[in-house]
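Sanity check

After download, print the first record. It should look like this:
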Amino acid sequence: MATHQPIRIKTISEYHEIMGLPKPEHPLISVINFESIKHLPANESISLVFNFYSISLKRDFNARFKYGQQQYDFDEGIMFFMSPGQVFGIEIDKNSALRHSGWLLLIHPDFLWNTPLAKTIRQYEYFDYSVNEALFLSEKEEATITGMMQNMEQEYRSNIDKFSQHIIIAQLELLLNYADRFYHRQFITRKITNHNILDRLEDLLTKYFNSDALATQGLPTVSFISEDLNVSPNYLSGLLKTLTGQSTQQHIHDKLIEKAKEKLSTTGLSVSEIAYELGFEHSQSFSKLFKNKTNFSPLEFRQSFN
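Expected structure tokens:
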């Protein structure tokens, strides 16, 4: 996909104007049927950044869509979430008319102002999936999400009163919680992809721990590992928690303890030398972690082999 300077869209009204849609019924929230978007503001490719949240449910989209490092097609119902400030790109085949179906929900952060969701919306991990993973839905799940979007649309199209915002926020929170459920189901059911990530994680850690990287660079960080695996830190941690019950940091520490046990049982290196080779500046920090993980001090563990 060609690189273009992203177009920043600051308001939902501006989005409607750029996409050739009528003015929004409400300035801070909009539910859009993708079929009503007949053109995009470029005939080949475009990069966009929104200053608002977007929740998309796409089908039958005959263009290429790139979000973070991942390119998606839309043969199945796909749902994905973007926070304000995230860049995405669309590349269109200029020789064919744009086909586009599904639903789009846009929410400006100001709509959430003075509600609990203003603080908690970022806690939904899928808003951090700016690198890899979108949500695949069954037909039943898709109908559930679409129904909630249409309920929100119906509410703001009705006469706005003092209850309207609370009702829409309640529907939005329900939608986010359903999506949370569907994501966790996806972690469990998409085993091939997930276990492929686990295999790559093990391979990455093994290579790192068998090189001199520990002594020169210290323990690998969660960010370093996530970037190498091309997933976000929150996604990786959520996946590992679901499949193994452990966080990424715990996996790193387990690998470290494996390596420490190997050195303690097969070499004559002192505890201080082993600590240094494993990236610790102070042997006390190493000994404390080892004791915490194994219930033995490094020397007690070594003596158990004599």
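If your output differs, re-run the checksum step. Summary of this record's structure: The beta strands are 7-9, 29-33, 45-50, 53-59, 63-67, 70-72, 78-82, 87-92, 101-107, 135-136.
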